[in-house]
Backbone:
């Protein structure tokens, strides 16, 4: 008996001619898009944490070290904590872990499109997958870090509350904001290599401009609070503090902003940054292969 | 019969693509900020200028052209890596969106993980690709190394793996940019078999290369592209000859010639074997036939031409030449002269070049048209030997007397 190759068993079906429209951000259909996004993110996550000797412990050690240093500085040296906040260490850790997600995702996204040059120039690939996969990878790291955060929560005696159920909602906003920033950075970096340096500094500034080290109500003067609430990240972080840490002293984002109207600048900024990210990526993605 | 013709797989209509190459690149925000209105200067490079063709399902279609002819740009447009300026591309069936083997491999991951990732890039689901994993590894003959990270793979193993993924991904249309010379002889045979199998299965394959042998071996039809335009579409052998002609016409020699003399221009120059076929290399002992065309640019009583044969070290082997018949009257501008020189091939295997020279005759003050290395060729076959020529000889060694 002769062996029949699997190729010969399926006679070619005359397919319809379809228009080839060239590269795009999404290209190749939604299923391929999500398959690729998940596969790229998961393999990168595995690569980092199973490829190193200490494995995913690194994912925990990095924010914990920062946490340890900052906790010492701000409770022993400057004594910011304690009085206004009931659970300063937990607040600090939660803030650091949230911000680490944002910073790691956006920083990796900056060079993502450029470093995946081979894929961009040699294959038809949904471009959007590249920066988004850095965000998803960071989200996976964040998931691992959350385990530690919750361990601390219980250790410091924070009572579980129904508002914990709202925590994912805040994360959705954080994820969206991070993605918007990542999209814009990754595609702008193709043309302006200065973006990497600028963003490193900007991220550092954002770290201090967001109530992570200090409670938003550190001054009795509320104007500071209103000012902080222009920053969309600050709004998200503050609300997480209210929902997760359930601190009676912590003002909600609305209170800190001095009413719903005070949140308008942050909302506008949030939408503008996300929209700009999508718009600029959509605009430049088809030409990225030529610019590289 | 038109009704029996296979359906169209790729239809390209009047495709244009140009690139803007900035002459002074604005690469930093600072430059933008300092000189916001500085004109951004571009040089327009027309890579493709109105290309139209059709490929039918099941066709193995070759695209040949010199470097910079626009063939890779065309392939990238077909693969949706670039976007066309104008024109239309239509395609039937699923396309393997790869134009080079091994793209998208992550060297930190194992072969298994990479196979799945690559398969998904080609449009299969992860589940489907995991099912085919075994077949891929088997085809690539890498069973023992399936869990090894790719960074520890040899380049041959990488290419085998990439080729296997492409074969198993089972796309309807494949775009391939010079990949056939991969692996050892056994694997190459396997690739060739796989290609014939795909041909039999009615897959459409577009192969871009500058190696005519590959095109003639596999392709049903071929297309020659030069300066962003189609020069010729047809039977591979025919396209191959066109390609060679183009190579010599537009080659380095011509570039040097244009700055030559006001009197003459060497239009083309090529090498033939005694059977009259155009060749680039000669078998040992096969006489070389040099043919070419000269154009007269200014009236002259006559023309003399000469060749110098040199070896690869630049040492002269010998010189020969000829002139036009002076009794035939003056040569007028626009007239063409055919060069036909035959040389008995006594050369030993190796690489050789021919310098070409031409001059008005008789005119002692005329500038000479001189083309260094106007032709280059290999003499192949047989064992290499000392020296550059094998002179006709007889030699005997006999017993002269016994003591």
Residues:
């Amino acid at each position: 008996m002769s062996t029949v190759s699997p190729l010969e068993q399926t006679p070619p079906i005359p397919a319809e001619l379809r228009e080839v429209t060239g590269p795009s951000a999404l290209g190749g259909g939604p299923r391929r898009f999500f398959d690729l996004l998940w596969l790229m993110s998961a393999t990168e996550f595995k690569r980092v944490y199973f490829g190193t000797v200490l494995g995913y412990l690194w994912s925990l050690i990095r924010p914990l070290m920062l946490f340890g240093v900052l906790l010492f500085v701000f409770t022993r040296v400057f004594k910011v904590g304690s009085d206004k906040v009931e659970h300063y260490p937990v607040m600090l850790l939660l803030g650091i872990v949230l911000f680490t997600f944002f910073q790691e995702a956006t920083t990796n996204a900056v060079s993502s499109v450029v470093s995946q040059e081979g894929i961009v120039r040699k294959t038809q690939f949904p471009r959007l997958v590249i920066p988004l996969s850095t965000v998803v990878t960071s989200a996976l790291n964040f998931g691992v870090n959350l385990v530690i955060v919750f361990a601390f929560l219980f250790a410091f005696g924070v009572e579980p509350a129904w508002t914990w159920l709202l925590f994912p909602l805040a994360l959705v906003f954080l994820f969206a904001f991070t993605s918007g920033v990542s999209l814009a950075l990754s595609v702008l970096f193709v043309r302006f290599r200065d973006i990497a340096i600028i963003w490193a500094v900007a991220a550092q500034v954002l770290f201090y401009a967001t109530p992570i080290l200090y409670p938003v109500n550190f001054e009795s003067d509320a104007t500071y609070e209103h000012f902080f609430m222009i920053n969309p990240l600050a709004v998200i972080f503050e609300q997480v503090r209210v929902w997760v840490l359930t601190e009676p002293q912590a003002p909600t984002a609305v209170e800190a902003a001095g009413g719903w109207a005070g949140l308008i600048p942050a909302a506008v900024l949030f939408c503008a940054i996300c929209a700009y990210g999508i718009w600029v990526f959509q605009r430049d993605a088809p030409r990225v292969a030529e610019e590289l | 019969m038109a009704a029996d013709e296979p359906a169209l797989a790729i239809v390209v209509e009047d495709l244009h693509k140009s690139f803007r190459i900035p002459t002074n690149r604005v690469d930093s925000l600072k430059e933008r900020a300092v000189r916001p209105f500085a004109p951004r200067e571009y040089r327009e490079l027309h890579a493709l200028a109105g290309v139209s063709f059709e490929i039918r399902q099941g066709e193995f279609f070759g695209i040949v052209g010199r470097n910079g002819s626009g063939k890779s740009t065309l392939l990238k447009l077909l693969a949706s890596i670039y976007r066309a300026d104008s024109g239309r591309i239509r395609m039937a069936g699923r396309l393997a969106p790869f134009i080079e083997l091994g793209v998208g491999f992550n060297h930190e991951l194992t072969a298994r993980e990479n196979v799945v990732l690559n398969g998904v890039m080609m449009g299969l689901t992860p589940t489907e690709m995991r099912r085919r994993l075994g077949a891929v590894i088997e085809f690539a003959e890498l069973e023992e190394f399936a869990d090894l990270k790719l960074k520890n793979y040899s380049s041959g193993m990488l290419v085998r793996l990439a080729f296997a993924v492409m074969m198993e991904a089972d796309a309807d249309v494949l775009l391939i940019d010079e990949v056939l010379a991969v692996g050892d002889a056994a694997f190459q045979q396997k690739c060739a078999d796989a290609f014939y199998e795909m041909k039999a299965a009615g897959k459409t394959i577009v192969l871009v290369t500058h190696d005519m042998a590959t095109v003639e071996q596999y392709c049903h039809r071929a297309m020659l592209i030069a300066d962003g335009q189609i020069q010729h579409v047809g039977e591979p052998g025919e396209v191959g000859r066109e390609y060679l002609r183009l190579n010599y016409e537009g080659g380095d020699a011509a570039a040097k010639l244009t700055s030559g003399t006001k009197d003459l221009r060497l239009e083309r120059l090529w090498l033939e074997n005694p059977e009259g076929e155009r060749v680039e290399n000669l078998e040992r002992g096969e006489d070389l036939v040099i043919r070419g065309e000269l154009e007269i640019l200014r009236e002259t009583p006559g023309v003399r031409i000469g060749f110098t044969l040199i070896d690869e070290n630049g040492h002269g082997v010998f010189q020969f030449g000829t002139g036009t018949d002076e009794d035939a009257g003056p040569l007028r501008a626009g007239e063409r002269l055919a060069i036909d020189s035959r040389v008995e091939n006594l050369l030993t295997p190796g690489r050789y070049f021919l310098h070409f020279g031409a001059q008005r005759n008789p005119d002692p003050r005329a500038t000479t048209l001189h083309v260094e290395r106007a032709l280059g060729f290999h003499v192949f076959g047989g064992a290499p030997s000392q020296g550059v020529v094998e002179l006709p000889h007889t030699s005997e060694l006999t017993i002269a007397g016994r003591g």
